[in-house]
Amino acid sequence: MIYHMDGNQVLNHKTQQEESDTRSTRRAGLELRSSGLSEKQDKKYENMVDIAEAEQLIRQGLGRRGMRRNDSSPSRGATNGSPHDISAGAGDVLSEGIQGYGRLTQSPSLQRFKLFLNMTLSPILLIAFVPNLVIVIWFTVMHCDGSYWTMVTKLFSQRSILTGIADMWRVVNMPSTPVLYILSGYGLYALVMMRLLPGKMVKGPVTPKGNVPVYKDNGFVYYLVTLALFWGLTYTLRPYGYTPSIIYDRFDEVLFALNTFSLVFCVFLYLKGLFAPSSTDSGSSGNIIFDYYWGTELYPRILGFDVKLFTNCRFGMMGWALLVCVHAVKSYELHGFVDSMVVCVALQLIYITKFFWWEAGYMSTIDIMVDRAGFYICWGCLVYIPGLYTSPSFYMVSHPVILGLPLAAFLLVTGVLAIWVNYEADMQKQMVRGSNGTCLVWGRKPELIRARYCLENGQEKESLLLASGWWGMARHFHYVPEITLALCWSLPALFQNILPYSYVIFLVILLVHRTFRDDEKCARKYGSFWQQYCKKVPNKMVPYLF
Ligand code: NDP
Predict the structure, then answer these.
(1) Does residue 525's CB lie within 6 angstroms of at least one atom of ligand 1?
(2) Both 160 and 214 in a single domain?
């Protein structure tokens, strides 16, 4: 059995005999596709090859031979004739790098090892390890004065890692009744608001199976209403002794409850995807561990509620905003006005405001288009965002710093600029696609690649790749302002400890890895069109460097 993982699908391939029977036909199909033969001839093979199969062939060293033969022939339908459209000319379907990778992975034992690593070992390690990570952050702030070094010596010196971790969990309290009420009340509130608040229906991107999910675009109203309710209740209940800082004081209970709920919820999602999927974008890889980790459905719905809209946006992102407000309240109760906390919280709130303003655009990002609803994305949004993303302001509650106006203003302005660049980049992509390239980018006609690709059912589609504006500087330039911004809201903690930089460090790893992941995904999806884009915009993330 050969498995091929591309994020949305895991193909359970046929027996070797069946495989070899179909190889020659598929190869012929690939050759025709890239040779620019007549539409009629091409149609004959249209249903035989899809993107994932093409990659599978390339990995087996077959597609490469077929495609190379046609290096000089123009790619079918590559341009619409506009002087600003870049013709995705001929060439190998995938870049040299991927061909090299393909050659390397031809060895069956190496392939087996890679599959075991990607689909079993890494998921097991991640599922076992990351739930501890958010507790480590909490423990370090609350019991080790924010110092990882103190935490390591306290927990692990002259003891095994497992004993240290067990000792750490021993100081974590089980969720108390008020915490359970707050969390379940908030979850219920979010669901009711998803249904009740007004918003127009927007279409998500077409999925690999050809479905078009529809979402209610009421995220921004939800965000404003929720923040107004938070501050209104904080102000009115204060005289009666109620304060939201209970969430800060009992954050161990919160993390315990979120961890438990999410791990169980992911089991439910796993089973739902297998036995009652909401759409055809579902299925099993045949590996139970990988299925739990990655998910069995792309966009599950429960009683009409979109699961990822709930976990990622309404719980994860909104929870982030509420938690930094809780930190601001707690800091004010302890120390009064602290400018470092103001900078840190203000930048995070502006960023999250931008997120909700643009929530419909988020539906066309990797989190939604590629990642299935499993442990990776759902646990990540339900636990990792509250536990890790909020760590700079969580730390600053007990480590107040007075920055002074010049430094505070500098960090604030730089951070706002970074948010603007990141937003503009996201918007450029959305605008160009929304207007079918008829808009202006930085005051000029955009440079476009009209890229064709096939859905899994063989249906052909066209998509626009923008090769100017921010998308002409590097293929994922918008990650640079994302990282700069995170640095701007972490720097107010200054340099006493590494902990407030945990999120930035994580973000750099996540986004650099994403540049590779997305390049691979797009190379598979768009073939020579993506290669054309890579030639025009050679850097992944940082112009001239990377
Ligand atoms: P992108 O918004 O970059 O989406 C990638 C997709 O965009 C590609 O798969 C492709 O999809 C399409 N695309 C790629 N190149 C082009 C192009 N030149 N022109 C048009 N479309 C293109 O990725 P993310 O989902 O990673 O990021 C979305 C936002 O979320 C960003 O602002 C990012 O900074 C932020 N983010 C924040 C994180 C955090 O934890 N703070 C983590 C990750 C992202 P298609 O198949 O449609 O062609």
Answers:
(1) yes
(2) yes
Question: Which ligand 1 atom sits nearest the alpha carbon of residue 451?
Answer: 48
The number of domains in the chain is 2
> Are 506 and 525 within one domain?
yes
Q: Which of 59, 87, 121 is the last residue of a domain?
A: 121
Q: Can you give the pTM of this predicted structure? A: 0.81
**What is the span of the domain harbouring residue 274?**
122-536
The answer to whether the CB of 393 falls within 8 A of the CB of 313 is no
Query: From the CB of 426, is ligand 1 less than 6 Å away?
Result: yes
Residues 100 and 138 in one domain: no
Distance, CA 483 to ligand 1 centroid (Å)?
14
Place of tokens 């020579």: 528
Both 511 and 523 in one domain: the answer is: yes
User: 191-213 burial, b if ≥16 CB within 10 A, otherwise e?
Assistant: bebbeeeebeeeebeebbbebeb
Instruction: Note whether 55 and 186 are same-domain residues.
Output: no
Length of the chain: 546
Classified as helix, coil or strand, 206 is coil
Sequential pLDDT tens for the chain (546 residues): 222 333 333 333 333 333 434 343 333 333 333 333 334 434 433 333 333 433 443 333 333 333 333 333 333 333 333 334 433 333 333 333 344 445 555 678 888 888 899 899 999 999 999 999 999 999 999 999 999 999 999 999 888 999 999 999 999 999 999 999 999 999 999 999 999 999 999 999 999 899 999 999 999 999 999 999 999 999 999 999 999 999 999 999 999 999 999 999 999 999 999 999 999 999 999 999 999 999 999 999 999 999 999 999 999 999 999 999 999 999 999 999 999 999 999 999 999 999 999 999 999 898 999 899 999 999 999 999 999 999 999 999 999 999 999 999 999 999 999 999 999 999 999 999 999 999 999 999 999 999 999 988 888 999 999 999 999 999 999 999 999 999 999 999 999 999 999 999 999 999 999 999 999 999 999 999 999 999 999 999 999 999
Nearest CA to ligand 1 atom 47: 364
For residue 1, tell me if it sits in a domain.
Answer: no
546: in domain = no
The 3-state DSSP class for residue 26 equals helix
Residue 452 in contact with ligand 1 by CB distance below 6 A: no
Residue type at 373?
A: A
Strand pairing class (305-306; 301-302): antiparallel
Q: Are residues 41 and 86 in the same domain?
A: yes
115 and 262 share a domain?
no
* Residue 339 shares a structural domain with residue 210: yes
203 in a domain, yes or no?
yes
Whether 429 is in the pocket of ligand 1, judged by its Cβ within 6 Å, is: yes
Cα dihedral across residues 322, 326, 328, 329: positive or negative: positive
Q: Give Cα separations from 272 to 34, 148, 243, 307, 321 (angstroms).
A: 40, 40, 39, 12, 30
